[in-house]
Amino acid sequence: MFKLKGRSEGTRSKEALRYRAYIWLMNLALLVTFAWILEIIVRRSTGIPGLGLTGTADFIAFLIVQVCSFVLPFFLMLFRFMRDDYTEMLWKRSVVVLAYLVAIFPIAFAAVAWSAELGLPKDGGAYAAWRTIYEPFIAPGAPADYVVSMAWKYYMAAFVIIFQFLRWWDSR
Fold this sequence. Notes:
It is a single chain. With 172 residues, this protein is mainly α. The chain has one domain (9-171). It has 5 helices and no strands. Helix 2 (55-78) crosses helix 5 (144-171) and helix 3 (85-119) packs across helix 5. The longest helix has 38 residues, at 9-46.
């Protein structure tokens, strides 16, 4: 009846699928990032790595977490062609918040570290809990590749969490 100018209906549906796929992949990245954070908490509190999984299940879970928490957000950060106008706006806002976080975190962490070191009693449980968090940051001889890879992992996790938080905030 009416002829559409410009893009065909098939092209529009492919674009809509691509835009929805960006959000689906971001949701997957958030879910696996939370699983990774939970694994860190369990490992630090119990000493059991991999959420108690062993053998092949632990290796498969490790691969899924590595790909979906660290590699996937990296590509989602770069693949502009998958973002529509709204997700592009969210991406820009997320990157701005991430830049503030990267600028503020070292100073805030140093302030908390010095406050905890100087203010907590050395024989208390709170100091021991603080040291389990703080020790990896001050351990002598940490290889540079480990430090850079951990900074990258936390940066990717922060990007996913900030993006999803802003998306949730907009939907309220």
